[in-house]
Amino acid sequence: MKNVILNNGVKMPMLGFGVYQVEDLKTCEESVYHALMTGYRSIDTAAAYMNEEAVGRAIKRSEIPREELFITTKVWIQDYGYEKTKKAFEESLHKLDVDYIDLYLVHQAYNDYYGAWKAIEELYEEGKIKAIGVCNFNTRQLVDLITYTRIKPAINQIEHNPFFQEKEIKPILSQYDVQLEAWAPFAEGIDDIFNHDTLKSIGQKYGKTVAQVILRWTIQLDIVTIPKSVTKERIEENYDIWDFELSQEDMEQIAELDKGKSSIIDFDSVETIEFLKTVKVHD
Q1: What's the CA gap between 26 and 51, in Å, rounded?
Q2: What average pLDDT does this structure show over 189-208?
Q3: The whole model's pTM is what?
Q4: For the segment 93-121, what is each residue's pLDDT rounded down to a tens digit?
Q5: Beta strands 224-225; 129-135: pairing state
Q6: pLDDT for 229-260, tens place per residue?
Q7: Cα(98)–Cα(30) distance, rounded to whole angstroms?
């Protein structure tokens, strides 16, 4: 497994396993357990995914030493603010049945994320979190947070895939030494990505699938990525990306697929803001 060193010196696996939209708890537990048995050591969940307990059960079943694992979870908008974030963090610890979190993220750039960040900074300084970061922050939001807080994020977890390559924010992330982590590396299957002619052609050269090509491309860009699957064969397939390397020509061909915008969600739209306000993780 290839690792990246975050801006605070913490080592993070570049390939992890995501559980977004895995709402059936038994399916989630079995998927995470199989991922761990396959070799994954980084698991990404969130309070808003409503499956932290299932992730915790899979971790316990695996009997893998805690220090070998890298566990990420996120605080949801509903629990932003200093006191509420402290409480939400303890709830996530309890559900995951762990003593500390490796990476704790502010899930969205709405509501009182400054209050949330202050709480997270303190939890980090207390040693309850190994690294802290944000999710879905654009350039302005990220730099604003860095400028007016004590501890800068180690991670910005954002959508990144061949169709949306986030080219505008990458120089800013590099400038401020914030690691890019990709969610939706497969664009959630939109635009028939798994049958895209360019990606299939590249895969055929190496005897690899389109999914493996995309993950290998992401890793070679030094981007952390967290593919999701509930199918054992695909979980294993997504992990099997370490025995080949894309050429510079391959990388350039994939770079040309960028559409410059998301086909999944527009975080700047009023509709998105109004919808996310309705998402509740508790009463």
Answers
A1: 10
A2: 97
A3: 0.97
A4: 999 999 999 999 999 999 999 999 999 99
A5: unpaired
A6: 999 999 999 999 999 999 999 999 999 999 99
A7: 19
Report the distance separating Cα 13 and Cα 43, nearest Å. Answer: 10
For the chain, the DSSP string reads --EEE-TTS-EEESB-EE-TT---HHHHHHHHHHHHHHT--EEE--GGGT-HHHHHHHHHHHT--GGG-EEEEEE-GGG-SHHHHHHHHHHHHHHHT-S-EEEEEE--S-SSHHHHHHHHHHHHHTTSEEEEEEES--HHHHHHHHHTSSS--SEEEEE-BTTB--TTTHHHHHHTT-EEEEE-TTGGGGGGGGG-HHHHHHHHHHT--HHHHHHHHHHHTT-EE----S-HHHHHHHH--SS----HHHHHHHHTT--SS-SS--TTSHHHHHHHHH--S--
Supply 196's token pair.
Answer: 């895209």
Rounded CA separation 225/180 (Å): 9
Give the chain's mean pLDDT: 97
Answer whether residue 205 shows pLDDT above 90: yes
Q: By the 8 A CB rule, do 37 and 64 touch?
A: no
State the Cα–Cα distance between residues 213 and 239, nearest whole angstrom: 12
- Cβ–Cβ < 8 Å for 83, 108: no
Instruction: Extract the tokens encoding 243.
Output: 């025995």
CB 119 within 8 A of CB 104: no
Catalytic machinery residues = 49
Q: Say if residues 148 and 156 touch (Cβ distance below 8 Å).
A: no
Whether the pLDDT of residue 1 is over 90: the answer is no
Burial class, 266, CB count within 10 angstroms (exposed 0-12 / middle 13-18 / buried 19+): exposed
